[in-house]
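Translate structure to sequence.
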């Protein structure tokens, strides 16, 4: 067998191996992406109905009171008397008696009986809880302008005894300056920021007194709504850790200890006031909760943050013992393990959280230790299943098997497991969370009043039918459910949306409805939710039956407006899986108020919408666009109903203005979203079908969207009550999309030129073209790229012009291809890519020194040409947008492309080494290539590491638009994708290793060989 044949066979085998490796990588990439869908079983709430709005009934003046003289009863009476005083008029007089039994079944048994008539009412109850509930029910009836005598009769104890809320906006100052930018996505509430000071004595007494009044008002309001527990932020802030097994955590003189004592002394009266009013207090904390000295103590003692070590958790248990001994009013601790980090930390304070409880063993060890402490101290531990994809327990919130793996066998009577009622976060279209139907543990169900993902409660959003259907189904399936947790304010960033703070500022009355609904359903799951909505309308807006009826009817339309206007149903009603996670149903708004413009979300969204037509028998794109119009029509009807009411019938002109204003805001926003959905869906349709009609429709939609976007920003940007959506990411997507057709034509032109160059190279030797300028260079690149062992002979005798064309043509094509691939918008991508190639080339040139560089230039340049042709072909259909569309949505095309692209990429270095081997033999040629590759990897990776991987990826992604723009601003790309921060430095280290190994292989290993190389170099250079 001839040498040429052996080399040809070796090259073919190498190509096959590289293609096989590329195919394996393509399958691995597809598996890592893991993009798939499955049908989701939607909740089936009853259709919303409108309760008949009866005439308002004036309450009687309460002229005689005979009630127990206790703090709880007196506060309840304050609410009742306040409700009567706030009524527009009163009719008659009544006496109220509360007869409280001396011994009852327990503090939480709140059943009561109301006897008497309009002139004399008597509440009989076995417990103080029952007596106060009766008083609060009378107050609610008065505020709803309904006859108090309707309550006469027996009232069973509440179905769910534990009804907890967050802390609302207690301690949060409504400072407009903090909301003006609209892009503060911190999840820290900054509650009590004015109270807690960085220097001794650490507490501002004036601010503390104001916060206490704030808290007392919140408790009174919550009790009137039926709430009897509160989650209070903090834990390690109040602990000195003096009595920890193994020695105190804080050294003598450490101000962390002094701060803990000061904060505990400051907030103990808050907790004691809640206890006095019959409200349980649970300290709400992430785990791990840390301070700098505490983290150092744990690492020094246990070698790391070893959360699977039982002794590790004894440190935290000792802290809880300390707190409960110091403040007996505390009832327990509420723990979350699934979210932590800087987005939740308060700047300037050495109290922070870390995602460290990520394994099944760690969670079980934590719960076993803390529930044992709770049992011994007669307290409770509320554990949230909100693990959001982190670690081995990442799907505990939505996966039955994971829930059992974590919690099976942990049956402490002190443990309560808290879970959101939806199978994911608080989004519409998510199924009911079936994990709430399992487990031997006590359970509570989480609800959110101020729906963070539905514009922070700024739009009307009556969740009554959904809450009722969810709670009734869950209670029928699991008799261990004993409570709810109602979020009145919390969830998501505090200062990125409207400045609506519960009981303080903005139109908080709008989402107060959902708080009242959740509490009422917890007391009685059979509650008439339509009547609750009507009562809410009477309480806050009007006594007039026609006005109340109009508002209630408008609220029945509110869910359809949200579900169709803020979601794309064909996408939202599927369970979508990607990169090992389950993205939420509202991915086109990522998240809260950021209208996304990235290809990953929008291309997959389009594909799911398109495929929905298979089962529905309709055009998925047309149906989705029609849904947007339906949502707009619903808001127009709501607006017609509310504006059609008599302004004189409203309690307050300000309340009417707020309602009318929020509907105008919703209508403007949903019209904007309607145009945007049409634009992105037609854009995907063009990439999918190559239809000129789809491109024309996209262009018309784009013009409509840009007009509406300009109007929306002009009208609402800077508005604290109705803030404009963040359209930055959407505009970046539009900017890229408008270049797609131009880039496609540029790619086609470059593709023709590149193919012409290759064809000339293929045929030049057999035609008279070989004598033409450049033909020899084209021939050399073709030969050297496909048979690199002939690279040296292919460049012999070339003219100077041809030699320079060997370098310039591939280099120019590479730069042009990368520029087109990024739509001339990502200079970062271009700089890193071209910079790496330049470093590769420079290192090779230095190693070659006086040897001829043209053989390796021909080999590398030729393969680069082939690699660029592949990319240009993919770009030539509908530009970079079409390139990425195929990547995200077409597995077969993605696999083929990655396999060939990888094979060609590696072949560059194989060809380079083969071409060099003719000059310096195989070992040194391998060294030259490895060193060049190492340098090309080392420098860019080190630059990225120095800049910071997260920062570098953010800049790159902003320019490329592959992943949601908001991802970096909210969660962090590296955090979300679980990319270690040290990845860039690891790559730099690997590059350095390649460089060192390459240099070692490149050096002459004997004086004889070095002498021979020195003798042959001048002759080689002369060629």
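Result:
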């Amino acid at each position: 067998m001839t040498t040429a044949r052996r080399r040809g066979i070796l090259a073919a085998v190498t190509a096959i191996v590289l293609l096989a490796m590329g195919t394996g990588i393509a399958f691995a990439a597809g598996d890592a992406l893991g993009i798939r869908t499955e049908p989701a079983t939607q909740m089936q709430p009853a259709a919303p109905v409108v309760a008949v709005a009866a005439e308002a009934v004036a309450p009687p003046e309460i002229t005689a009171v005979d009630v127990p003289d206790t703090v709880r009863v007196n506060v309840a009476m304050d609410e009742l008397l306040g409700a009567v005083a706030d009524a527009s008029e009163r009719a008659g007089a009544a006496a109220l008696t509360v007869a409280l039994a001396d011994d009852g079944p327990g503090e939480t048994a709140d059943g009561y009986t109301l006897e008497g008539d309009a002139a004399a009412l008597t509440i009989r109850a076995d417990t103080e809880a029952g007596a106060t509930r009766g008083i609060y029910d009378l107050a609610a009836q008065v505020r709803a302008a309904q006859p108090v005598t309707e309550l006469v009769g027996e009232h069973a104890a509440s179905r769910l005894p534990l009804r907890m809320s967050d802390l609302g906006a207690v301690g949060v100052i409504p400072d407009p300056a903090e909301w003006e930018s609209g892009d503060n996505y911190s999840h820290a509430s900054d509650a009590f920021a004015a109270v807690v000071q960085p220097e001794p004595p650490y507490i501002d007494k004036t601010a503390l007194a104001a916060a206490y009044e704030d808290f007392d008002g919140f408790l009174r309001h919550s009790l009137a709504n039926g709430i009897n527990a509160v989650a209070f932020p903090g834990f390690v802030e109040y602990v000195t850790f003096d009595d920890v097994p193994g020695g105190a955590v804080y050294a003598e003189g450490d101000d962390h200890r002094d701060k803990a004592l000061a904060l505990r002394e400051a907030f103990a009266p808050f907790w004691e006031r809640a206890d006095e009013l019959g409200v349980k207090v649970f300290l709400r904390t992430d785990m791990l909760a840390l301070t700098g000295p505490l983290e150092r103590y744990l690492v020094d003692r246990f070698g790391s943050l070893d959360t699977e070590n039982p002794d590790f958790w004894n440190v935290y248990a000792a802290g809880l013992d300390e707190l409960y001994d110091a403040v007996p009013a505390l009832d327990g601790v509420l723990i979350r393990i699934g979210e932590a980090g800087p987005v939740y930390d308060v700047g300037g304070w050495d109290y922070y959280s870390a995602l460290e409880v990520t394994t099944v063993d760690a969670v079980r060890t934590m719960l076993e230790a803390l529930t044992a402490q709770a049992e011994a101290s007669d307290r409770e531990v509320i554990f949230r299943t909100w693990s959001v994809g982190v670690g081995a327990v990442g799907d505990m919130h939505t996966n039955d098997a994971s829930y059992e793996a974590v919690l099976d066998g942990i049956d402490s009577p002190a443990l309560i497991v808290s879970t959101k009622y939806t199978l994911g976060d608080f989004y519409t279209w998510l199924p009911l969370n079936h994990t709430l139907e399992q487990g031997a543990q006590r359970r509570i169900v989480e609800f959110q009043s101020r729906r963070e993902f539905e514009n922070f409660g700024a739009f009307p959003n009556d969740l009554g039918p959904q809450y009722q259907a969810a709670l009734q189904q869950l209670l029928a399936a699991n008799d261990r459910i004993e409570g709810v947790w109602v979020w009145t304010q919390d969830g998501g960033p505090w200062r990125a949306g409207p400045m609506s703070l519960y009981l303080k500022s903005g139109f908080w009355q709008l989402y107060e409805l959902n708080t009242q609904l959740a509490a009422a359903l917890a007391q009685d799951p059979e509650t008439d939710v339509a009547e609750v909505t009507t009562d809410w309308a009477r309480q806050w807006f009007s006594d007039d039956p026609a006005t109340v009826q109009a508002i209630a009817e408008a609220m029945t339309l509110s869910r359809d407006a949200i579900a169709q206007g803020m979601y794309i149903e064909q996408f939202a009603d599927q369970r979508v899986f990607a990169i090992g996670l389950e993205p939420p149903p509202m991915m086109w708004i990522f998240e809260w108020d950021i209208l996304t413009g990235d290809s990953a979300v929008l291309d997959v969204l389009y594909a799911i919408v398109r495929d929905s037509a298979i089962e529905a028998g309709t055009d998925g794109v047309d149906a989705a666009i029609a849904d947007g119009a339906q949502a707009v029509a619903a808001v127009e009807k709501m607006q017609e109903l509310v504006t059609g009411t008599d302004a004189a019938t409203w309690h307050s002109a300000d309340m009417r203005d707020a309602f009318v204003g929020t509907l105008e805001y919703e209508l403007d926003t949903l019209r904007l979203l309607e145009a945007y959905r049409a634009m992105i869906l037609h854009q995907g349709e063009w990439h999918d079908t190559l239809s000129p009609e789809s491109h024309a429709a996209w262009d018309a939609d784009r013009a409509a969207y840009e007009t509406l976007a300009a109007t929306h920003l002009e009208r609402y940007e800077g508005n604290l009550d109705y803030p404009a959506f963040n359209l930055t990411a959407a505009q970046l997507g539009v900017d890229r999309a408008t270049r797609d057709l131009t880039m496609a034509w540029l790619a086609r032109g470059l593709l023709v030129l590149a193919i012409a160059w290759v064809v000339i190279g293929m045929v030049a030797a057999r035609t008279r073209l070989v004598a033409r300028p450049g033909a020899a260079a084209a021939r050399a690149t073709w030969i050297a790229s496909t048979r690199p062992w002939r690279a040296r002979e292919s460049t012999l005798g070339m003219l100077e012009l041809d030699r320079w064309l060997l370098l310039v043509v591939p280099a120019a094509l590479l730069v042009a291809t990368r520029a087109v691939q990024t739509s001339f918008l990502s200079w970062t991508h271009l700089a890193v890519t071209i910079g790496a190639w330049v470093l590769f080339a420079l290192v090779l040139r230095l190693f070659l020194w006086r040897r001829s560089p043209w053989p390796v230039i021909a080999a590398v340049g030729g393969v680069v040409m082939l690699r660029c042709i592949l990319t240009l072909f993919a770009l030539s259909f509908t530009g970079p947008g079409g390139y990425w569309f195929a990547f995200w949505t077409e597995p077969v095309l993605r696999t083929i492309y990655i396999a060939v692209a990888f094979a060609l990429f590696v072949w560059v270095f194989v060809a380079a080494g083969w071409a060099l081997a003719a000059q310096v033999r195989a070992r040194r040629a391998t060294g030259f290539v490895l060193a060049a590759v190492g340098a090309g990897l080392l420098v860019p990776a080190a630059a990225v590491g120095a800049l910071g991987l997260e920062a570098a990826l953010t800049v790159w992604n902003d320019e490329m638009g592959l992943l949601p723009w908001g991802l970096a601003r909210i969660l962090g790309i590296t955090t979300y994708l679980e990319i270690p921060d040290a990845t860039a430095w690891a790559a730099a280290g690997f590059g350095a290793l390649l460089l060192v190994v390459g240099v070692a292989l490149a050096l002459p290993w004997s004086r004889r060989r070095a002498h021979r190389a020195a003798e042959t170099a001048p002759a080689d250079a002369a060629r």
